[in-house]
């Protein structure tokens, strides 16, 4: 959603529910934004709310069913959102492969992609793919206000 194409839509949905608690709201998001899912589901009077990932829109019947359910006061949460919310309770690094953990450890040492590639004797493209996997598995979608590599290192240091 403009202007920043980041999380403005989620902010707007939560604010709308704060000012109009019975307003049915169904959020479609590219990523699971865990910090907003709980806010959205807790917003308003607890009825008529949903959070789906955008790829569900392609399944037209399921999407229409979800839209009608929310409009009727029900709650709809994408199964992938539920999985990721439940996964959060575990160590986030459990989702990483051994190679991804190795790459993340080298990032934590301050190494560049080129230095990591030389250390692991792989291409820089391979390192990039590992980093992409790390960021995805740690639920770190692109955002202007944060540096995802730093957030990944913080998760590594906490674990």
Automatic annotation (TrEMBL):
Xref: Pfam families: GerE
Gene3D superfamilies xref list: 3.40.50.2300
Coiled-coil boundaries: none
Record flagged with keyword Ribonucleoprotein: no
InterPro entries: CheY-like_superfamily, Sig_transdc_resp-reg_C-effctor, Tscrpt_reg_LuxR_C, WalR-like
Keywords of the record: DNA-binding, Transcription, Transcription regulation
Domain HTH luxR-type, residue spans: 89-159
This protein's record includes keyword Transport: no
Name of the protein this chain belongs to: Response regulator transcription factor
Organism: Streptomyces vastus
Highest classification ranks of the organism: Bacteria, Bacillati, Actinomycetota, Actinomycetes, Kitasatosporales
């Amino acid at each position: 959603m403009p202007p920043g194409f980041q999380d403005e839509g989620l902010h707007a949905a939560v604010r709308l529910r704060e000012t109009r608690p019975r307003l049915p709201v169904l959020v479609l998001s590219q990523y699971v934004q865990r910090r907003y899912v709980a806010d959205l589901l807790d917003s308003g009077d607890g009825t008529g709310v949903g959070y789906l990932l955008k790829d569900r829109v392609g399944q037209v019947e399921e999407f229409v069913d979800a839209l009608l359910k929310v409009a009727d006061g029900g709650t709809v949460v994408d199964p992938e959102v539920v999985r990721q919310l439940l996964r959060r309770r575990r160590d986030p690094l459990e989702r990483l492969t051994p190679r991804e953990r190795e790459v993340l450890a080298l990032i934590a040492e301050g190494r560049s992609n080129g230095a990591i590639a030389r250390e692991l004797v792989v291409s820089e493209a391979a390192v990039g793919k590992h980093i992409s996997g790390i960021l995805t598995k740690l639920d770190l979608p692109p955002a202007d206000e944060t540096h995802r590599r730093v957030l990944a290192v913080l998760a590594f240091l906490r674990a």
